[in-house]
Amino acid sequence: SSSNSLLISAWDAGSSSDSEVAALPVLNASINTLEITLSYRQRSGGTVIVGYLTDANDASTFVSLVSLPSSTSGFTTQTVDLSSAPSTAARIAIQQYTWYDCYIDDITVRTPPTCFKPQNLTCSAYTATSATLTWERHANGTEDAWVLEYGTASDFTGATSVDVTGGTPSKELLNLTTDQIYYARVKANCGSETSE
Fold first, then answer.
1. Which of 32, 98, 148, 180 would suit a FRET pair with 17, their CA atoms being 20 to 30 Å apart?
2. Of 71, 76, 52, nearest in space to 62 by CA
3. Taking phi first (over 0 means left), then psi (-120 to 50 degrees means alpha), and beta for anything else, what does residue 28 get?
4. Which of 59, 57, 107, 50 is nearest to 82 (CA)?
5. For the chain, what percent of residues have pLDDT higher than 90?
6. Cα end-to-end distance, the chain, whole Å
7. How far apart are CA 164 and CA 188, in angstroms?
8. Do the bridges between strand 35-42 and strand 76-81 make them parallel or antiparallel, or are there none, so unpaired?
9. What DSSP string runs through the chain?
């Protein structure tokens, strides 16, 4: 058992198609303008599904939006875009389907960002004193400028911040110290705001 987590138990020896639904409170915003981030862990198997209820007080009206990847070895965090839900959706809901249990924790519901975090930051080439970092725009991103931070502290204390412009998501770092571990992160620069 995980302390302070919601346990959704769909275990019933009577049927392999049993499921249980946990519904979030009714919100003062249309569900299709939101996203949900949650951590989950399955005890043995089954499927965790994020969706919505068409009737706020009836779990049998659950409609599936996204089946989450299996996570039995530890908590996994996923963000689900709810824009495909109809404007008439009554409540966000989470379903554990087929016989097993899952734990849900750290649920956040928010308006999605308009400045999207870049993905897949990698070191594509390096020498003893240089490295080339590359990354990809988020699938919804349109930015052509980024802020790259790098340094020797994992918490980025004292990190060097470099503006990268010109639409190419890469940067060559020069004059690095030999045999030193470096940490890097990148944020999209969308003009009036930056991504997380």
1. 32
2. 52
3. alpha
4. 50
5. 57
6. 32
7. 10
8. antiparallel
9. --TT-EEEE---TT-TT-EEEEEPPP-SS-GGG-EEEEEEEESS--EEEEEEESSTT-GGGEEEEEEPPP--SS-EEEEEE-TTS-TT--EEEEEEESS-EEEEEEEEEEPPPSSPPPEEEEEEEE-SS-EEEEEE--TT----EEEEEEESSTT-TT-EEEEEESS--EEEE-SPPTT---EEEEEEB-SS-B--
91-93-95 Cα angle (round to 5): 155
More confident: 114 or 109 = 109
Q: Say which residue the tokens 């058992």 belong to.
A: 1
User: What is the pLDDT at residue 167?
Assistant: 74
Rounded CA separation 182/23 (Å): 43
Neighbouring residues of 120: CB distance < 8 A, sequence distance ≥ 6:
135, 136
Give percent of the chain with pLDDT exceeding 70.
Answer: 92
Cα–Cα distance, 159 to 185 (Å, whole number):
10
Check residue 3 and give its pLDDT. 66
CA distance 79 to 178: 38
